[in-house]
Design goal:
single chain; about 425 residues; alpha/beta; Aspartate Aminotransferase, domain 1; Aspartate Aminotransferase, domain 2; 2 domains; 7-stranded mixed β-sheet; 3-stranded antiparallel β-sheet; 15 helices; globular; binds pyridoxal-5'-phosphate; PyrdxlP-dep_Trfase; signal
Length: about 425
Amino acid sequence: MKIVICLCLILYWLSFPVYPFGHSLLPLFSLDPSYININHGSYGSAPKYIHEKLQEYQLKAERNPDRWFRLDVQIEMENLRKKLSKYVNCDPDDLVIIDNVSAGINSILKSLKFQSNETILYYNIAYGMVKLTLQYLSTEIFTQKQIIQIELNHQTIQNTNLLLKKTQDIINKIKNVKLIIFDHISSIPAILFDIESMLKYFHSQGILTLIDGAHAIGAIELNLTKLNPDFYLSNTHKWLYTHRSSCLLYIKKDLQKLIHPIITSFGYLQSFQNEFFWLGTKDYSSYLTISDALDFRQTIANEIDIYNYNHQLAIQAGYLLAQMWNSSILISNEKFISTMNNIELPVIINTLDKMNILYQKLINQYNIFLPMIEFDKKFYCRISAQIYMELNDYQTVGKIVLDAISIIKFLPSLK
Ligand SMILES: Cc1ncc(COP(=O)(O)O)c(C=O)c1O
């Protein structure tokens, strides 16, 4: 009996994070101590351990370039795909590593063949690069009529039934929708969509699905076999802690032959994996740090604890700032909040001009970068939570925003 109790106690103790979350983790990162990184979501931040590993790979390449490129890096990348595929639960042959989501989305959209009456749907909250790539396609390859934007508002972004109803109405009108593009976690406003339901629904309609999961891997649990998307992308340098830039591209087996990378090189027509592996001579070190980032995470805590800390901190920070600014949060149902949250700016910020003045003031005078947006007639900022942040960081930023507003309030344009 005593042994059982001891074992239980050890297991209980082992289930705790090795490090406590918050500022005690800051020394593991290279962030400037005077900088509050309230915007981890844009570019991520790799731990010092990852920088060391990056340099090790670069040194290996320098020591014997022929051996590295002709043998070693191929084996390393093969092993990496196997390790990563376990983390996201898919067949290793269904994923490749590429530079970033932009490269992946461009490869997919510029490879797929469309009949002149087939259409692509996307939502107004899509990332700017997606919209511009579609604009390029609509002028260079398709007609404007083939690319249709669906408008979401503060209600439809947090109600999957309403969102699907709105989308279905458009599908009924257009009839021949070939592809729909949507976010797993959108950029700004940041919303965690119920893509499991969305995927089931669109597949039942025979529509191909392209998911921009730029913010997903490392932020939330990702199970690609369960989700079963047609195309899925996620930047590992945002939330998984790899070096920039590195990104996972998953393509369902029967679609792999249809998609080619933007750069054509020696892998052309060999296989999905080979085609995306060799895009000309380049530095693979950032990609290889994916393996080290997965190891690093295990030394910090278990995955669920990392997800939960960031998710809870994003929620708490949202309430705190809304209270400090006497404003509101965009998402009321926590199910739609990931590791980022959207808070309405103080009500005096009620025009785009005022929002831009505040944005510039914060960067130029306070060294604070706070992404901002007008959405559904209100003005919001986006905050990111991360394991090295604590609630008092958001309080500090909240006060800084009030301070900046109190100074610029006296400018004629803000009255
Ligand atoms: C939702 C979303 N999609 C795509 C991207 C593009 O990522 P990248 O610039 O690494 O290609 C971003 C970048 O922040 C994003 O937030």
